[in-house]
Amino acid sequence: MSLEIMNIGFASNLKPTAKLIYIAIADFANDDGECFPSKGKLAEKASVSMSTMKYYLRAFENLGIIKTEQLYRSNGSKSSLLYKINIESKNLEQTKVENAYKECRKSKNIRDSHWVTMPKNGLKKDSKILHKVTIQKSNCDGLESSYINHQSLDEEEVAKYFADFYSYLNSIGVVATKSKQMHINRIKANLLKGHKSTMENFNDFLLYQTAYDTAQESNTA
């Protein structure tokens, strides 16, 4: 791990999800900012979904915050994807990153340039009366549209994180005023439906947890 690059991430004003992903890359990186973890490992380290992670990676790449290079095996087949963090980048800033991220999301339903056949005037499909429409290639093609930026959690994720998350909420003063069980049920429901302030607290919890885990790893290294 590169503590120097991780500290750059911690010191940035990025939103929690973007910061978690940047720090996750830095956690795998050497002091030159290079690493080649799988996308699955990055998503697991940052505690985000694959689609969220891919969108932010593409946003980072579009802004020059990271560069990627495909590595190949001796037989010519694809191997790992090399990530190189550009610590000199001036674009590691919340507004720029979120704008780039939103641009990726806008085109989430667009795939590689291809031809689509459409019937004219609603007539039955017939090869003689079809015209062709070109769809422009997107920088963010191939990304899933579901579960973007932790808009909500599914039941499995709630079960996985809830105990620690609820303890975190208690530690910051979010406590039950009447029935604890009713309070727990309400928070679980908020996570499942993507309640704004609850999800903001959840992202803060993930950031706190990542920082804590990193400190523990450093102490035992």
From TrEMBL:
Gene3D superfamilies: Winged helix-like DNA-binding domain superfamily/Winged helix DNA-binding domain (1.10.10.10)
Pfam families the UniProt entry points to: HTH_36 (PF13730)
Lineage of the organism: Bacteria, Pseudomonadati, Campylobacterota, Epsilonproteobacteria, Campylobacterales
Identification of the protein by name: Helix-turn-helix domain-containing protein
Highest taxon listed in the record's lineage: Bacteria
InterPro entries given in the database record: WH-like_DNA-bd_sf
